[in-house]
Amino acid sequence: MSFAAEVAERCRRVWPETVDRVMGQILLRHFFWYRNHPAAIGDTARTFPDLLSGDLARVFAPIPEALDLATHHAAFIERPWGVAEDLRFASLIDSPHPENNVVWCRRWRPAHEDRGLVVVGCDGIVQVGCRWFTRLSQQLTPAGIGVVMMDSAYNFRRVPAGFRSGQLIVHGDLDHQLSVARQSVLDLWQVIRSLQAEGKRVGLVGCSYGGWLTLMASLLAADLEFAIALAPPVDIAALLESRSPFVHAVQRGLQASPHLIDRWETASRAVRLPLWTPQLPGSAITLHLAEYDRFVPTESIARLAESWGTQLVRHRDAHYRITSRAEVRQQVAAEILQKWRHV
Prior knowledge:
Elements: H1 3-32, H2 44-47, H3 56-59, E1 73-79, E2 82-90, E3 102-110, E4 117-122, H4 131-140, E5 145-150, H5 167-170, H6 174-197, E6 201-207, H7 209-220, E7 227-230, H8 236-240, H9 245-254, H10 258-261, H11 264-267, E8 285-290, H12 298-308, E9 311-315, H13 319-322, H14 326-339
Parallel strand pairs: 4-5, 4-6, 6-7, 7-8, 8-9
Antiparallel strand pairs: 1-2, 2-3, 3-5
């Protein structure tokens, strides 16, 4: 690379990386460390020892039963491009916080023709609304494709009073963090199976932490159509060796139970995507990475794409921007419409 090109590249990185750094500090100080709550101490392994086994099938058990989602209606929201419906049902997992044990979903149905395809997904680790999936639904429902957004555990409408979105996802010991991951993945798997029981074809889309959840679901759920993940933290081990602001939050939580730290290497295997094989073919998976990402190690996504044989889309941008920009969302919608609308 010439000197001029190197200077241009450095200048191009400055603003996106600055945005990521600022957002990282906001997340740490105003969400993950809000009110300086003590780290949550988990108790799941006492009654469910497989939590620390590191085995995918044993940790993410039992296989969830399909629900009749029509019986779990909470509210209707009408929009020009379709009808949105809020759904809620009891989580398979009981956590210490009742608010978290109710799974909330928002479902956007096509206004007219229904092609039998539903896109299911989750947003990032600090979710404060439905905007990203609302905008995606505006692009997909006119083409006959439904959209379902699920609130992950301890996020958005599942946050206990006195806490903030995402705070209890990371601010806990090893038992707690694995329990939260298990709950979110099983809840998402149940939504997938429930839609498939309706005769729907299901594809997955997720942003950041939500992208990791959708990829975890792709390891477990059968008969999916596709999975698309934007800047997912695919390998927690690589994440903890990075300079991500998430590292400070995660490590502070892990240190709350020093006696469990020695079990980290084995127990974390169940949530490390590179150690497992998805049920989907690589050609049906698309990973998006941000080359200037300050939250997620970029090369870990590239290595996973190579290992799984997936499609890889590189963006010369930062983490926060590719998970929020309209242009990237439009690119995701265009891929779905082009590849899977008529399947």
